[in-house]
Known about the structure:
By secondary structure, the chain is α+β, with helices and mostly antiparallel strands. Among the domains are: about 165-280, no CATH class; about 290-465 and about 490-610, Neuraminidase (6 Propeller); about 630-875 and about 905-915, Porin. Helix content is about 20%, strand content about 40%. The protein is built from 15 helices and 52 strands. It has a 17-stranded antiparallel beta sheet that branches. The longest helix is centred in the first third of the chain and has 24 residues, at about 1-25.
Amino acid sequence: xxxxxxKVYALIPFFFFLLFIQSSHSASQNKLIxxxxxxxxxxxxxxxxxxxxxxDLLLPFVAEHLEHAYEEVTERLNIPVKGRLPFFFFLxxxxxxxxxxxxxxxxxxxxxxAFKNRFLIFNDGTQRWxxxxxxxxxxxxxxxxxxxxxxxKSAKLLKSVLYPLWFMEGMAEYASGEIDDPQKExxxxxxxTSHTLLPLTMLHGFSHLKPNQITLAYKTxxxxxxxxxxxxxxxxxxxxxxxxxxxFDINNALQELLGLNIFELNEKFKESLEEKYEEESSQLKExxxxxxxxxxxxxxYPIFNTHPVFMPGGxxxxxxxxxxxxxxxxxxxxxxxxxxxxxIQARFSKEIENIKRTGSALSISPDGATVLFAGETRQKDFLxxxxxxRDRLKKIKFPLESVTSPQFSPDGTKIIFIGMKxxxxxxxxxxxxxxxxxxxxxxxxxxxxxxxxxxxxxxxFSRENISRTDIGFWNASQSSQHxxxxxxxxxxxxxxxxxxxxxxxxTGKESKLLELAGxxxxxxxxxxxxxxxxxxxxxxxxxxxxxxxxxxxxxxxTEIIGGNxxxxxxxxxxxxxxxxxxxxEHQIYRAELKTLFSQAREVKDFKLNSSQAxxxxxxxxxxxxxxxxxxxxxxxxxxxxxxxxxxxxxxxxFLSAYWRASEMLGNHQMQTSFSYASRLxxxxxxxxxxYLRFRPQIFFGFAGDTEENVLLTTREVxxxxxxxxxxxxxxxxxxxxxxxxxxxxxxxQFTDDSLGSLxxxxxENVFSLTYFKDVTQGRYLETSxxxxxxxxxxxxxxxxxxxxxxxxxxxxxxxxxPLPKESALAFRAFGASSFGRDKQLFRVGGDDLLRGYxxxxxxxVGNRFLISNLEWRxxxxxxxxxxxxFLFPDFLFKNVYGSxxxxxxxxxxxxxxxxxxxxxxxxNSFGLGLRFQAFVLQTFPVVLQxxxxxxxxxxxxxxxxxxxxxx
Length: 967
């Protein structure tokens, strides 16, 4: 009983230890540090702007966006924020992924963390993005100031799981203004009219949402706060934030401030949206009104099929899709109406880790032999050339920070693309072998959506219009400037509109080709060069337009209820492809050009062939001024501290604590936890230090544990103290090497009332080396494709002053094969062998190895073993969404999977024993399983596993209940 009490005490700090070590050092893919960052700090009125080499040209813009965000958001929410805030600016997403503050993935645009109130974003080249994401993340800073500032911040942070994300993220979008309204309106209009709107009650957390639903969740929260502001007053939004800080949940805050609970708010909000969009969409058309759908919808998850490009013959096209869970290339046969995956990422995982969708993402060579696209690997961007006939992938690296939107020239000898240097995006041209690189444009404005005119003499592209001449270059020689925010600022929604431009390769002249209200993007030129199809988001709807160059006319081709994107005209100019967003999916449609043009409406208000050429002169000095730069100096502080102290008459003084600290960049991280009980003579501790600045990531730590077992006349006290040092070296996102040295001292004191006492002291020193490879894929909660390999070797011998001598080898292989309707075959092979004087004994029974066999059966133990598990995993219920909301914490059952399995294994200790094995000696079982995929607080995933196994040798049956999948 006493040992059980001590284990409970030990779990108190260890809960925090595991919680934060998981958030800090675990991710679905490896983090690879490929760049050495030299950080400096620029001080504005309210921010410490952390930046590194190459950012000077963008600092005036970033400084202005920060100060404007501070002014606008605090005024809109009526919440002043005291103190300076640290802001980290990354020039591109590859650099952003290398930060050690918060782990981020491909889809992350910005992050705000509550420990040190740091917020960080990356630059995608556009001012519209900077304006939007800085306001969004600064709003989180305002929220954290209200919710967590004051005495004992760590205790307040524990309450963070109670704040619903629809409110937290919705407020961040609400305070960002109308700059992203076209996307918000498209997502909400589609969700309401297709009856797929996410209820607020299911948006406490976003972890359970299906792929491609996260942005809809953000915008739904935004619309909910718009509704509150309109119906109850704009001041209620800020008051709701202050009110929720004092309450246990959102319901109490809503009830006190608005007089209704979350269920009533959801109903009123839903009714308001239905009324709004029923009226707005009454004259809008479904995509099927204009075209025939080519790509199939997924009956389970919403998928995005985008960027179709015709093959030269016009009978096939290439496109991008996330149908398999990652972005892949697909080829579609128009005659057979069938799509086949090219599986580029799956088959060339060492060469490419991510395919980019930005801009004009795909291009086909004139002879139809090569597909050109942009991607990345090892935190660097490359242009990729995939040979369709030879099934070969070639990549080219340019001396640029980022590359996107590549296109072949009409004769196939050259390529153009968007390249980023010092955070600025410009147009570049080179020969297709990568030689002869030349920068064509030299502007601060962002360019994208590249297309060649058919004669190969000019380039069509879209360009962002900054519409200001008062932002310029930072003068590094200036010691300081007085900060003043612009007082008269244009509406950001229209401030950064994109127009269509042309560039002459013969003269170098840049001219604005077309200007409409809204953004003109994604142009496509007909094979004769007489017409241009493009997308415009005027009236907050992404519609398809046509520019007739000879006639000087602009036609609006669609009045779509969702949104249209990525037009592509066939070589013979009889038909076209486009992407339409509807029912939460992007699907590809095929339309007759003649039919589309016959329904078109002529646009009157536009500017064509403007004589305006881009002004390349340096603009005037920025009205946002700032102090001189400072070099970053190491500064560490506490992130989280939570102690527990009490006195018990049975256990004496009990003290337990978890403490986490780091420096501002996150390169140095320290975590400690301990528990102490005076009367039980019990001390448990863990200490972990991580140095994460470079590609090899170094860890060392200490741990100690006391375990006591008391029977009637005997008492056994075991004490272990261990120290370890390790290093992990990622080879790429999917592979890494890890080495560790662990030394452990064990003390055992055995006491018997009649026999006296016996004491034993021993030390074990172990070195291990591990190779990991994980290229598994899954579209949602289940892994359904790919493989995983783990090979570990470890050694302990006398030469290292170890009192045990052994060598162990462990090999694990996981293989997953996808089957229809989200089912899969899952296979595991796991083997181990121990050598040396003190060979280790391994068990093969239990729920995690051979089901149906006892975990501690003596006949299931040996020095070597080999097991295999084969499962057919199939869905029983999708989107069960059974929400036990009336309990705390609430429990959401999402999916239920079934499985049919067979386990096999052998265990032996000598060569003679292995040779004597007969087929009937093979340990075999079969059985059935149920897997319940659930979420606590709609945030933390929990897998409940029920298995029934039957041994074939004697018919013995065993039932298991476990947490988490076996593999």
